[in-house]
TrEMBL record:
It is an enzyme of class 2 (transferase). GO terms for molecular function: glucuronosyl-N-acetylgalactosaminyl-proteoglycan 4-beta-N-acetylgalactosaminyltransferase activity. It comes from Oreochromis aureus (Israeli tilapia). InterPro entries: Chond_GalNAc, CS_glycosyltransferase. This is Hexosyltransferase. Its main location: Golgi. Keywords: Golgi apparatus, Membrane, Signal-anchor, Transferase, Transmembrane, Transmembrane helix. It is a single-pass type II membrane protein. Belongs to the chondroitin N-acetylgalactosaminyltransferase family. Its EC number is 2.4.1.-.
Length: 773
């Protein structure tokens, strides 16, 4: 019993005893090891401080080292107070960040193209090269010896100022090192008398390893055969890798001083071989690369040869063709190779369509899963009755959906061309399907329908009456219904000229006798939106007098009150000047008074032509600056016209601010009075209508500025909804002396701005109820 009790006690206390024992053992080992770590040669009192009992005081870690002079006894230790000093925060270091992510990540473009040209050929062959390859490649730069007087438009030309061929080649390579060596992986050089198939050279470099030292082109033996190796003949172009150029860079000056040659391509080849031991190759072979066996295909063109008659496979596979004698031959080559690539694209599309049809058979919905046409987005599916797309009915001569609201109008212009093209395409596709068994000829279009689907494009349904002729010559008339789609093309970014929001806007406000009552409200709104915010704009009033009012201006100036208001605002805002111009005319035509204003301003002036009832703010002025582009585009905004407040808010208090809601107003599509354009564009367009004005002077009164730009300018006319441009309600007096079209638009605009149909109906209903009682 006692033995079992002893065993149970030992079980509970055993781990504790063992733990204490291990602790003492390890502590003794640690003290012994620390004493051994001290230097055996140290003298008493030098390395450590010992007590009377000989034990180590202030034992330190084995790897700590201390000099004797730094150790003091505990008896000599004097405590001291270290005052706290606040650490002054240092200015943060400015971290440099690259402008573009690609620069920071070290990403480079794939291909740089340098075209070697001269002042004698840059305007002919150089222009032809630029037109055939520049829109396919990212960077195309033309290098020439001495610059010609006039550089062709749209070309980046670098002139070295010397006609020596070797010197130009040296300067070209040096220019690449200075500007583009860190931006591109591959550098392609070609002469301007060679045609380059741009898409094929791009495809070649896409399959090449960018870390390879490669010198690729048509290999050529050196003249005389005295030197081993082969260089790339410059006539067919050659490809250099960035890694090869970087290896060559330190020795470029040595090549210029030591290598003598009559040909620039031979000089560069000798330089590359001498200092890098890399020869020109016409085929890319690398066992470690999956794209081994890539060839640099080229073709030497015979003199006065016709590209359309060349049938050899070498010619059809060529990346470059040389020599090209004139620009016409360059364009013919470009057309030939473009047709080859286009046919390849059509073949690929047909192959993909066949594969989609084959796969759709085993799909869950069967053939219904393959939309028609194959590869085109499915039609738009309306979610409500209001989203159903309407079809327009047309014949070969007329269309039953007109812009002016007429039930029927003549089919003309681009619409007539569109219908004719669709009918021809339908006949061609039917003959592809049924020939040679049956040949179909068009007799007439019975019915035609079309609609625009924003998802897929323009859709057509045609009922065609056709004459079917069989192989024996027998014919009969049949009716065939066909469906066609003109699909939307791929979305592309169109380059636009650079514009800025810092341009000063000159605002022109024409005033007649009937407009005087609106000036006070206009100046009040404009002062808060422009004068108080220091908007970069100048306000100019144009006072329009008729002949009678002009004769009485000294006794009774109809604009005297307006001129006094202008003086008040100029005193209130000393930095503001509001000029005004007076004109006398019977018919206040836009073109007539703009002729006067245009002569009083520089050619680079940006005009905004507006009305006195227009509320102008900074938001709209910025869009005016952005949408009016000199020598490119004019801007005609569609303002929001407020309804007559007595109609829109009948028996209700009038609100201080009007929201963009259907019961408050509408966008007045019949008004073309507001316009943003540059003076230079106006002057150029105005000069083009001089001949028509000489034949008919009334054209200045029958035409507004909008129609003038559309008919004579050749610029982009940008007509768009402008929510920031609002116009308070006013009844505009329409001048019957202007053209019938302008007068009709003015009357319709007045009628539509009275109120909405529901508001007018409610007024009539109330009036009828009042009359009945």
């Amino acid at each position: 019993m006692r033995f079992s009790l002893l065993i149970s006690v030992l079980r509970s206390l055993g781990p504790v005893v063992i733990g204490i024992s291990l602790g003492f053992t390890l502590s003794l080992l640690s003290v012994s090891w620390s004493e051994d770590a001290c230097s055996p040669d140290s003298k008493e009192g030098e390395a450590v401080s010992l007590g009377k009992d000989g034990l180590l005081k202030g034992a330190r870690k084995p790897n700590s080292i201390s000099a004797a002079s730094d150790v003091t006894s505990e008896e000599d230790f004097q405590p001291r107070i270290v005052p706290y000093k606040q650490v002054q925060p240092s200015a943060p270091k400015k971290v440099f960040r690259a402008k573009y992510i690609s620069t920071e990540l070290g990403m480079r473009e794939r291909l740089f193209v340098g075209v070697m040209t001269s002042k004698n050929t840059i305007s002919t062959l150089g222009v032809a090269v630029n037109r055939t390859i520049s829109h396919h490649l990212d960077a195309v730069i033309f290098f020439t010896g001495s610059r010609s007087r006039k550089i062709p438009h749209g070309m980046f030309v670098v002139s070295h100022g010397d006609e020596r061929l070797i010197w130009n080649m040296f300067q070209t390579i040096k220019y690449i090192f200075d500007h583009y060596i860190n931006e591109y992986d591959w550098f392609y050089f070609v002469q301007d008398d060679a045609y380059t198939e741009a898409d094929r050279i791009k495809a070649l470099v896409e399959h090449l390893s960018m870390d390879r030292e490669l010198y690729m082109g048509r290999p050529e033996e050196f003249i005389g055969g005295a030197m081993e190796g082969r260089y790339c003949y410059g006539g067919f172009g050659y490809l250099l890798s960035r890694s090869l150029l970087l290896r060559l860079q330190p020795f470029l000056e040595n090549c210029r001083n030591d290598i003598l040659s009559a040909r620039p391509d031979e000089w560069l080849g000798r330089c590359i071989i001498d200092y890098t031991s890399i020869n020109c190759v016409g085929e890319y072979e690398d066992l470690c690369d999956s794209f081994q066996g890539l060839h640099y295909h080229h073709y030497e063109l015979a003199k006065n040869s016709d590209p359309s008659k060349e049938q050899s496979e070498e010619f059809k596979k060529a990346l470059t063709v040389h020599p090209v004698s004139d620009p016409e031959q360059m364009y013919r080559l470009h057309r030939f190779f473009t047709e080859i690539e286009l046919q390849k694209t059509y073949d690929e599309i047909a192959k993909l369509q066949a594969e989609i049809k084959n796969v759709s058979v085993v799909a869950f919905e069967g053939n219904r899963s393959a939309q028609w046409p194959v590869g085109i987005n499915p039609p738009f599916e309306p979610k409500s009755r209001f989203e159903v797309l309407k079809w327009e009915y047309f014949t070969e001569e007329e269309i039953y959906s007109c812009i002016d609201g007429s039930p029927k109008c003549e089919l003309r212009g681009i619409d007539r061309m569109d219908v004719a093209d669709v009918i021809d395409t339908a006949i061609g596709e039917l003959n592809k399907k049924y020939m040679p068994t049956i040949h179909l000829k068009k007799q007439q279009l019975i019915n035609g329908y079309r609609r625009f689907d924003p998802i897929r494009g323009m859709e057509y349904t045609l009922d065609l009456q056709l004459e079917a002729v069989n192989q024996k010559g027998h014919s009969r008339s049949i009716t065939k219904r066909v469906h066609l789609v003109r699909p939307l093309s791929q979305i592309e970014i169109i380059p636009m000229p650079y514009v800025t929001e810092a341009t000063r806007v000159h605002i022109i406000i024409p005033l007649t006798l009937q407009d005087r009552s609106y000036v006070d409200h206009f100046l009040e709104v404009f002062a808060s939106n422009a004068f108080e915010t220091s908007e970069n704009a100048i306000l100019t009033f144009l006072f329009i007098y008729d002949p009678v009012e002009a004769q009485q201006v000294s006794q009774n100036d109809i604009f005297a009150s307006v001129k006094s208001q202008i003086t008040v605002y100029e005193r209130k805002y000393p930095a503001v000047k509001i000029p005004w111009i007076s004109v006398k005319t019977e018919t206040p035509s836009q073109i007539k008074f703009m002729d006067i204003i245009s002569k009083k301003h520089p050619v680079d002036t940006l005009f905004f032509l507006a009305e006195v009832s227009t509320n102008i703010n900074s938001e709209f002025l910025n869009r005016c600056r952005m949408n009016a582009i000199n020598n490119w585009q004019v801007f005609f905004p569609i303002h929001f016209q407020e309804y007559n407040p007595d109609v829109a808010y009948h028996n209700q208090p009038h609100p201080d601010t009007v929201d963009l809601v259907k019961d408050a107003g509408l966008f007045d599509r019949r008004s073309f009075d507001e316009a943003c354009f540059y003076n230079s564009d106006y002057m150029t367009t105005r000069s083009r209508m001089v001949a028509d004005v000489q034949e008919n002077e009334e054209i200045l009164e029958n035409m507004d500025i909008y129609e003038m730009f559309v008919k004579y300018s050749g610029l982009h006319v940008f007509r768009a909804i402008e929510p920031a441009l609002r116009q308070q309600y006013r009844y505009e007096v329409c001048n019957p002396r202007l053209s019938e079209d302008i007068y009709h638009r003015c009357v319709q605009s007045n009628l539509e701005s009275i109120g909405s149909r529901s508001q007018l109906a409610m007024l009539l209903f109330e009036q009828e109820q009042g009359n009945s009682t």
